[in-house]
Amino acid sequence: MHPGPPSPRALSDLSCEELGAWLAGLGFKASHAEAVIRRLLRPSGPGTASGTRMPATLQARLQSSFAAEAAHPAMRQVSEDGTTKLLLRLHDGRTVESVLMPDYHDDRAAGCISSQVGCAMACDFCATTQTGFERNLTSGEIIEQFLHLQIEARAAGRTLRTIVFMGMGEPMLNLKNVIAAVKRIADPRLGAFGWRQITVSTVGIVPGMDELREAGLGVHLAVSLHAPDDRTRADILPMGRRFPVRDVLAAADRYQADSGRITTIQYCLLEGVNDSLEQARELARLLNGRRMHVNLLRYNPTGLSLRGRTYAPSSMEQTDAFLAELRACGTVAHLRRARGPDIDAACGQLRKRQPPESQSPVMADRQGK
Ligand code: SF4
Fold this sequence. Notes:
Blueprint: H1 16-25, H2 32-41, H3 56-65, E1 71-78, E2 84-90, E3 95-102, E4 108-112, E5 116-118, E6 133-136, H4 139-155, E7 159-165, H5 175-185, E8 198-202, H6 206-215, E9 220-224, H7 230-236, H8 239-242, H9 245-259, E10 264-269, H10 277-287, E11 293-298, H11 316-328, E12 332-335, H12 349-352
Parallel strand pairs: 4-7, 7-8, 8-9, 9-10, 10-11, 11-12
Antiparallel strand pairs: 1-2, 2-3, 3-4, 5-6
Helix pairs in contact: 1-2, 4-5, 6-9, 10-11
Bound molecules: iron/sulfur cluster (SF4).
């Protein structure tokens, strides 16, 4: 089958420099580029530069030359706790998930953003990886997730205060586009977000962690460790065979030393797998002398795993005991509340049950809003 002409790029895919060069090539002032992208990143959502004061011929040219958007909401679920999960459809019909989570503060929210369609990392407890890896997201597709989450937050009477690259995909394997998106989202000239409000998460891809450090963005780093020892870690995270715990933490040390940002250690508690008190003590020993925080996560069951296992979340009693043991050993640790237990809140779940493309757009809202 002939693939047909490539889809036009969306404006959100262009940096100021790229857009400036494009404008200059058409005889327009390159300085319009900053205004166009600032307008795009203002919290009024993705689209072209309508509303920006600039020549009508330029606006018309932008509208005819670029796709109106790179990602369009195809499905939406809202949990009773206010967590909102969006399924965004991309120009090629593929889909990605983004999640908005209400903060403890009534007026704030946090967003979770995807970096890839699917994932090749094969973490055994994750739903995303069960459909494999399809492709990297463009910088525009990443930015538009951010814009849609801003819209969702505003509709809920909140402000999007932080975003974390912890949705579908491994950000370090699409680092070029993640960095390009972050640079635009956090560019002070464009007036959107601050570097400190952004966290990039990784399953522990050491070269990517070093590349992010060398980029010098000053964003936060989160490492999904999930086990303190290589044997348990490699059993649930295949990447653990390639990058042992020692090397991952050494890369986190380097990142922390250069950026001055405290690294977060993500640890998803799985019943009978990584939740013993001995494992809590081992984790605390590893982090002794390091200024890192542990974020304990409650597992959202996703059914049968890649390797045919069924994982269960640790009981609340065991979770509390694990947290207490970490703290007793001097580790700074917190328990993240489970989000959206009544919707497909785990990464990749909503996408797995998406309707055929022909049925979209669908607004599936369990609260019937
Ligand atoms: S947990 Fe993250 S890195 Fe691991 S398979 Fe899922 S999406 Fe990929």
